[in-house]
Amino acid sequence: MADVPGLPPPSQLLIGLARLGQAVRMEAWRNAGPRNLSPLQADIIGLLHGSRVPLRQGDIVSALASTPPTVSDAVKVLRRKELLEAARDPGDARAVLLTLTPAGRDEAARLNVMSENLGGAVSALSPDDFAAMLRGTVTLMRQLQDRRSIPVSQMCLTCRFFVPDAHPADTGRPHHCNYVDAPFGDAELRVTCPDHELPPGPD
């Protein structure tokens, strides 16, 4: 590989991932919808939609790796657009819990429809390439989470219900989810899951 011009393979991969991130973000701007959502506002709606419980503003800051002022401004805009509603936390009167309004849930459903550009690109992957790419993505995310470079995501690799390689590899579904008690393969790995639970900590 010494004679191949250009940056080394790890750098090439990181540049490629950056380009993909740019494409996803550009699609988010294009998908602003009738309420003219910014990508951050869309991310907040998606986060609340995927949560089984109301979230504090601090939870949103941590989950999206943003800053309190930035999230606060976005939340204020979303409340003005009547997509979010706030209620006092019964356990802490100083804290506010955020949930989606019915209009916010409708907006979340709209945002969950994959764009034609991104959907077409993903569908071009063969099943094996798709599984390998998803497996590689969650592996990189896990490594970055362990290095505290990104927030912890609700993905299989950090979930107490996930049992890797519990079944023979030749079945195509080597992993096991104890939550649903079913085997699954790399192509079904979850980057975010509402049933995610962290493993218990040491006593």
Please give a handful of descriptors for the protein shown:
203 residues, alpha+beta, Arc Repressor Mutant, subunit A, 2 domains, 3-stranded antiparallel beta sheet, 7 helices, 45% helix, globular
The helix fraction, in percent, is: 40-55%
Count of DSSP strands: 6
Identify low-pLDDT runs: none
Biggest beta sheet summary = 3 strands, antiparallel
Number of separate helices: 7
Oligomer: single chain
Radius of gyration: 19 Å
Largest beta sheet: strand ordering: 1-3-2
CATH superfamily of the largest domain: Winged helix-like DNA-binding domain superfamily/Winged helix DNA-binding domain
The helix-strand sequence is: HHEHHEEHHHEEE
Distance between the termini: 49 Å
- Count of distinct structural domains: 2
**CATH overall fold name of the largest domain:** Arc Repressor Mutant, subunit A
Please write the CATH class name of the largest domain.
Mainly Alpha
Q: Which class best fits the helix and strand makeup? A: alpha+beta
Please state the average pLDDT score: 92
How would you describe the overall organization of this protein?
The protein has 203 residues and is α+β, with helices and mostly antiparallel strands. The chain folds into two domains: 9-111, Orthogonal Bundle (Arc Repressor Mutant, subunit A); 126-188, no CATH class. The chain is built from seven helices and six strands. It is globular, with a radius of gyration of 19 Å. It starts with 8 loop residues before the first helix and ends in a 19-residue tail after the last strand.
